[in-house]
Write a structure and sequence with these properties.
With about 150 residues, this protein is mostly beta strands. It folds into two domains: about 5-40, no CATH class; about 55-140, Cystine Knot Cytokines, subunit B, CATH 2.10.90.10. Helices cover about 10% and strands about 50% of the residues. The protein has one helix and eight strands. The strands form four sheets. Strands 1-2 form a two-stranded antiparallel ribbon. Strands 3-4 form a two-stranded antiparallel ribbon. Strands 5-6 form a two-stranded antiparallel sheet. It holds the Pfam family Cys_knot. Functions as a heterodimeric glycoprotein hormone with GPHA2 able to bind and activate the thyroid-stimulating hormone receptor (TSHR), leading to increased cAMP production. Plays a central role in controlling thyroid cell metabolism.
Length: about 150
């Protein structure tokens, strides 16, 4: 009986068991082993989500330019909310002749982060911004979010 090579790895609470026989198509076995290695290194696989068709709201890494008068701008990478939420309008008989339902991808939970910018001596170098912990599709709250509204 030919020797066997068994590869075992825990991936997303599923155990991938693969047994390869060395004498059967070495290229196929090596390719499969390489795929398993890549899957393991990538942390569980490639996401099957098509971002162009994704509807929902999620935390996603985002880089922006932190600016403040009297300070040098600084690139900051943080977690922010990103997504597409359900929005629709339909005609109605009475004014305003449209019934609408509009939600935006917004912060559900966040924490404030403060960084120090390079500033002139008379300017406070502190720059504070929110970092998303969780996000959801909800009504745009003008107290915390810049909302575009047309009346």
């Amino acid at each position: 009986m030919p020797p066997r090579l068994t590869v075992r790895r825990q991936v997303s609470s599923l155990t991938a068991d693969m047994t390869l026989q060395r004498k059967k198509k070495k290229t196929w076995g090596r390719g499969l082993l390489l795929c398993c290695l890549l899957l393991w290194v990538s942390g569980g696989g490639v996401s099957g989500v098509n971002l162009r068709r994704f509807v929902g709201c999620a935390v996603r890494e985002f880089t922006f330019l932190a600016k403040k008068p009297g300070c040098k701008a600084m690139h900051v990478t943080t977690d922010a909310c990103w997504g597409r939420c359900e929005t629709w309008e339909k005609p109605v008989v009475d004014r305003p002749y449209v019934q609408s339902h509009q939600t935006v991808c917004t912060y559900n939970e966040s924490k404030l982060i403060t960084v120090k910018l390079q500033c002139q001596s008379d300017v406070d170098p502190s720059y504070t911004y929110p970092e998303a912990l969780t996000c959801h599709c909800g009504v745009c709250v003008t107290r915390t979010t810049e909302c575009l509204t047309f009346v």
